[in-house]
Design goal:
The protein has 350 residues and is an alpha/beta fold. Helix content is 40%, strand content 16%. It contains 13 helices and 13 strands. The radius of gyration is 18 Å and the shape is globular.
């Protein structure tokens, strides 16, 4: 309700300024609100990649790039949150403007370019919250001007593993030139070997699982290859999917902006990619459904297509940060309606 009251003022701001306003507002939440438990009712809880999620609705990477408000987001009722993408060195990202609301389409286009304050700044914040409850994934990336991007990912895995519930390897952003080439079979195998080795060197007997974030703009051969590698490397999950470089019919005057498209127009493509990866993996690798989820029905469709977990971002631009708790509650009602006792029972049953 509060968000709907202030939404006109927020939307009067330039998009990136509005986002910074949201981060500042979350930082200002009272301590009691920050400490509130995630929405759960027993049936919403599940175990994925060895982690216990109180509910399946999380915040996607990109919202909290510098790990400034993970506990505030968990306090709003999300089952987990993912910070980043974080790179070894600070970088300013692409020139502004680089974030656009497509209001008529309930969508967002961004070409941020992994702007973040770097690993050291994130670690300083993550050290403070170490030992607190709540699942916080860390999304890692490579610097744009790096001469060895695989080395960047390995370096980040070693730095962030001690603070991560899981490590998300992001090779699917369309806004860093050449990054998506790391989804190719040979490059991906080498990358994951380096990341796993670096993680294991610092993690002892309890290493955080590795999630791999993939693009929606993949051919079937790419999907099959990624699925084989994910199974072979025993990844914790596949995050399906990042933003798209495709442009379905859009109404907004920002439709021709370069960058990755997210929000409502991505819904059907992202849903289909969950189906594709569910089939390609034979259900052996858990899937995190992302892209165009804005309601309980959207979330439930993604679960029944094969997703064990879900992530939101763009829909919160239009519905506010309380959306996660509302969707979690709606999933509980839809489970009861359709006769499922647990999330795990419903996954992949469409």
């Amino acid at each position: 309700m509060l968000f709907q009251l202030i939404k006109p003022a927020v939307f009067a701001l330039e998009s990136e300024t509005g986002h910074r306003f949201a981060i500042r507002a979350l930082k200002a939440l009272p301590a009691g609100r920050v400490g509130r438990k995630a929405v759960h009712n027993g049936t919403l809880s599940s175990s994925v990649a060895g982690l216990s999620f109180p509910n399946p609705v999380g915040v996607a990477a990109g919202f909290d790039k510098d790990a400034e408000v993970p506990d505030a987001l968990l306090g709003l009722g999300f089952g987990f949150t993912e910070v980043g993408s974080i790179t070894p060195l600070p970088q300013s990202g692409n020139p502004k403007p680089r974030l656009f609301r497509l209001v008529e389409d309930r969508a967002v286009i961004n070409r941020m370019g992994f702007n973040n304050a770097g690993a050291d700044a994130a670690v300083a914040r993550l050290k403070v919250r170490k030992g607190r409850p709540g699942i916080v994934g860390i999304n890692i990336g490579a610097n744009k001007d790096s001469s060895d991007r695989i080395a960047d990912y390995a370096n980040m895995a070693g730095i962030m593993a001690p603070y991560a519930s899981y490590l998300a390897v992001n090779i699917s952003s369309p806004n860093t030139p050449g990054l998506r080439a790391l989804q190719d079979e040979g490059a991906l195998t080498g990358l994951l070997d380096a990341v796993i080795h670096a993680r294991d060197e610092v993690s002892g007997h309890s290493p955080p699982p590795i999630f791999l974030k993939v693009a929606p703009d993949l051919e079937q051969a790419d999907i099959d290859a990624i699925a084989r590698i994910a199974i072979d490397k025993k990844l914790g999950a596949l995050i399906v999917s990042n933003t798209t470089i495709s442009r379905p019919h859009l109404k907004s005057h920002h439709a021709d902006e370069a960058g990755g498209l997210s929000g409502a127009p991505l819904r059907e493509l992202a849903l289909q990619r969950v189906r594709d990866f569910r089939k390609a993996t034979g259900g052996e690798i858990p899937l995190v459904g992302v892209g165009g989820i804005a309601s309980g029905e959207d979330a439930w469709a993604r679960i029944k297509a094969g997703a064990s977990l879900l992530q939101l971002y763009s829909a919160m631009v239009y519905e506010g940060p309380g959306l996660g708790a509302r969707i979690a509650a709606d999933i509980g009602r839809l489970m009861k309606r359709d006769g499922f006792a647990t999330i795990a029972e419903a996954v992949g049953t469409e």
